[in-house]
Amino acid sequence: MTTAYIPAVHYHVDLHEAVIASAKILDVVSTTSGLSELNGSFVVRVPGDVAIQSPATLADLLSQKYDGLLAAYAGFTEILWDDLLDPLHVDTVYPLFAGRVGDRSSIVLNSAATFQSTVFSPIPGAAPSQAVVLWEVYNCVDLNPRDGRLVRQYGGRFSDDVSTCEVSFNNGVSFYAVTDGGVVNIPPASQGTDFIIRITNTDPASNPLYLGSWAVIY
């Protein structure tokens, strides 16, 4: 399997904390390869240019992550996001969805299948005319060497290499294709505050993809 990795900072979070928002940060790995070993944790991936100041819990880390992402895009004032740590905002009856939906970074999208969110209505603020969409995907691989221990490995992917994304601001009447981190212009007739996002697994190697998170900045 040929894999394209993305450099970032990996925050390893306690997988077994009963109250997920209170989960502790177990380790921080600055990686240029996009790889790190899970070992009883799950990864929250933070772009290297987003400053994080000693988060005490997962809730603190996520708040800092998305505040930092919003601050990186001058001129935009709102951010809507889902780190997909549970199936709360996943449209599990969407006809093109195929995969697994669980808790704590375990949403997996089968090859050629499409994830769709439930409708966020109304989103904060006024109906936007422009937006920036970000989404994260990764692979999770078990390595079982003959003379070593079993290791579960997280591997971040470049989103545009293995997936496509579409967004709607008018409850699915109009969808617009987006690139990861690119600006999308929303025509007046399609503007609104009823947001849906779709992500399709287009991995040329036909691998399942884990969904890490998505965010829309507007």
Please, could you describe this protein's structure?
With 218 residues, this protein is mainly beta. It has one domain: Jelly Rolls, CATH 2.60.120. It is 8% helix and 38% strand. The chain contains two helices and 15 strands. The chain has helices at residues 58-71, 159-162; strands at 8-14, 25-31, 35-37, 41-46, 79-82, 99-100, 108-109, 114-116, 130-143, 151-157, 163-168, 176-178, 183-185, 196-201, 209-217. The strands form three sheets. Strands 3, 5, 6, 7, 9, 10, 13 and 15 form an eight-stranded antiparallel sheet that branches. A four-stranded antiparallel sheet has the order 8-14-11-12. Strands 2-1-4 form a three-stranded antiparallel sheet, with helices on one face.
Estimated share of beta-strand residues: 35-45%
Secondary structure: number of strands: 15
Mean pLDDT: 92
**What is the end-to-end distance?**
36 Å
* Number of distinct helices: 2
Helical content stands at under 10%
Large-scale geometry: globular
List the helices and strands and how they pair.
Elements: E1 8-14, E2 25-31, E3 35-37, E4 41-46, H1 58-71, E5 79-82, E6 99-100, E7 108-109, E8 114-116, E9 130-143, E10 151-157, H2 159-162, E11 163-168, E12 176-178, E13 183-185, E14 196-201, E15 209-217
Antiparallel strand pairs: 1-2, 1-4, 3-10, 5-15, 6-7, 7-15, 8-14, 9-10, 9-13, 9-15, 11-12, 11-14
